[in-house]
Structures are given as C-alpha cells and as structure tokens.
Amino acid sequence: MKKILLFLITLALWFVFAGRVTIEVFLLGTIICSILSLMFVDNGFKLVQMKYETKEFLLKIYYILLVIISFIYDVFLSAVRVSRHAFEIKPSFSPRTVRIKTSLENTNSMAMLINFITLPQGTLAMDFDNLSKNYFIHWIDVHSDDEAEIKKARISKHENLVSKLFG
Amino acid sequence: MIDFIHSLSQLLVYVFLLTGIYFLFSTALGMIRFPDFYTRLHAGSKCLMAGGIAVLMGCIVLEGIGFVSLKLIVLILFLVITNSIAIHVIASFADNYNILPKTIVENDSDE
Amino acid sequence: MLYLILAIVLSAILTFYRVIKGPSVPDRIAAMNSIGVMFLLVLVLLSYYFERKIFIDVALIYGVFLFINVLVMSKYFSEPEKGGVGD
C-alpha cells in the first residue's frame, strides 16, 4: 500500500517535469519511480509519521487546501502593511520581542508553525527552545500591551488549524 | 462574448504583474531605508514572497491550462516552503551571532 | 513586457547596495537571497519574452540551488572568529 502510494506520487511529479505524455516517457518514468519507491519506502514515511485510514486521508486534503488558502491571504495582508512603512518619509516602528509557549506535541506541527509565524502577520520567529517549547518572536508594529494580547490570540487560531492537520 | 473574456483575462494579467512589481520595488526600498537588521528581514521576507506569488499567478493566468501552468504551481509551492525556512535560518543564525534587536519599548523576553 | 523585466532588474540593482555596504554578515546573506528570488522571476518572465518554455525548467533548478546556497553559507559563517566579528 505504501509502495503504491509513493509510486503514484513520484510518477505524477515525473509527468509534470517531463511536460508531455507519450509511451517512452511513461516507460522510463515507471522504471525510475519503481526504483525510487523501493529505496525510500522506509525512510520517507517515517518522516511524515503517517498512520491514518483512507477516509481521514481525504479529510486531510481538505485541511491542506484550507491552510494554503489562508496562508496566501495572510501573506498579502501583511505585505501591504510592511510596504506601507517603506514608502513613508520617516519610517516609524515600535518593535519588541516576545516569547510564546506552544502546546503542540508533534515535531512536524511545531516545524509547520514556524512557517506560519515567519511569513504572515508581521512577525518573525527568531529562535526555538526545544526543552521548554518557547518561540522567541520579533514583532514589527505593536504599540501597547493590549494590542500584543490580541495578536497572541490570533496566533493561537493558527495553532488550532495546524493541530488539526497532524494531530 | 469570447472577446470580452479574453480582454478581461488580459486585464487580470496586468493587474497581477503590476502588483508584483510594486511589492518587489518596496522590497528594494525597505532593504535600503530600514534602520535595524530584523526590520530589514521583515521587508526581505514578506514583500518578497508577496511579489513572487503575484508575478507567478499572473503568468498562470497568461498561460491557461496545461503542463506549463502545473510547473508554475509546483514552483509557487516550492518557493513558499523553501523561502520561509531560509529566512528562519538566517534569523536564528543572526541571533547566535549576538546581533541584538533595537527595541524601543522594553522587552518582556526575560521574565 | 520588456519594461516589466527592466523594473525588476532595477530593483535588484537597488538591493545590491545593501550587499556592498552591509554592516554585518547576515545583512549580506539576506540581501543576496532577495536578489536570487528576483532573478528567478526574471527568468520566468523572459520565457514569455523569447517564447522558449525551457527557461521555466531552468528556474526550478535555480530555486533548488538558491536554497542550498543560503543553508551552506549560514552554516559556514556560524562560528565567529576569535577577533570578535559580531555586530
């Protein structure tokens, strides 16, 4: 089952890179992809930590689409806010560094949350402490303490979305 | 009717490309004018990624449905995953390098 | 289409100012990363200007090498020398 799934994924990537569908391309792709799927069948799935059924697998695809759409929307929203600072005559900031504790357990979802902190919302992940599970975050425009609490709540909304993905 | 749809898609392509070039130009200005290292990194990550996604989406609309647009979608996904990891690696490296951020308000990172 | 390509090249040249006059090493690495992504977009737009679709494949491989470049450079400079290079 795992071998067939990995074989189909690599064959689809092969067709995308080749750019056309003929018999010769299909035969060469079958040989290369079968070798690759036999070689990496143990290591590849250990990285993804995949242990759910096919019905949950379709639900995961829906969550992945939801995550990507919200991700691209947030990137545009925060790029407008940063680029407005770039065209001012005197750029005025009020940056500060904050640390945030996460409640995630899985290693993949912690690495996924770094992507969510770094690109959207005007934040930047500086460092990650592995023992106490703290992120050190650099904010670009926080004017008071109340605004910091609102934005921390906005990060925990992303955290719920990520925790649905990997569990 | 077909002519109308064609001109509408042509308009959409130019809106996407001009938006992307506005973000890229603001990246260049932000890299020059911002005072601190970490704020410079903000300009180098967010505006750059928004510009890149906008230009590539304009190319997808220009191309239509085919294998080339699939390659461009793979390029967008690769660029989004890769560039955020690269920015985080640079920020973590600068934190180990003892470059302190210039904070105006006192930080609450040492409780 | 040509003027759009020239605008991206102009912004890449403006970013090159930060590579020359960067006070520290991570400034130069971040500026180099943004120059690399800008020239990747120039490659994608040039494939429509010359009407050669092979340039998009070149752009894919260029993205892979850009990522490896940033990782290796930040790994190589990560141990500061004895002379006190910081800041």
Automatic annotation (TrEMBL), chain A:
Membrane topology of this protein: Multi-pass membrane protein
Domain of life of the organism encoding this protein: Bacteria
Keyword Transport on entry: yes
Pfam families documented for this protein: MNHE
Residue stretches spanning the membrane: 28-45, 57-76
Localization (cell): Cell membrane
GO molecular function, one term: monoatomic cation transmembrane transporter activity
Main subcellular location of this protein, as a coarse class: membrane
Claim: Glycoprotein is one of the keywords in the record: no
GO CC field: plasma membrane
Keywords: Antiport, Cell membrane, Membrane, Transmembrane, Transmembrane helix, Transport
Protein family membership: Belongs to the CPA3 antiporters (TC 2.A.63) subunit E family.
Name used for this protein in its record: Na+/H+ antiporter subunit E
Organism of this sequence: Aquibacillus halophilus
Automatic annotation (TrEMBL), chain C:
Natural source organism: Aquibacillus halophilus
UniProt xrefs under Pfam families: MrpF_PhaF (PF04066)
Domain of life, source organism: Bacteria
Annotated membrane topology: Multi-pass membrane protein
Protein name: Cation:proton antiporter
Gene Ontology MF: a single term: sodium:proton antiporter activity
Keywords noted in UniProt: Cell membrane, Membrane, Transmembrane, Transmembrane helix, Transport
InterPro entries: MrpF/PhaF-like
Coarse class of the protein's main subcellular location: membrane
Matches recorded under PANTHER family: NA(+)/H(+) ANTIPORTER SUBUNIT F1 (PTHR34702), NA(+)_H(+) ANTIPORTER SUBUNIT F (PTHR34702:SF1)
Similarity remark: Belongs to the CPA3 antiporters (TC 2.A.63) subunit F family.
Cellular component per GO, a single term: plasma membrane
Subcellular location: Cell membrane
TM stretches of this protein: 31-50, 59-77
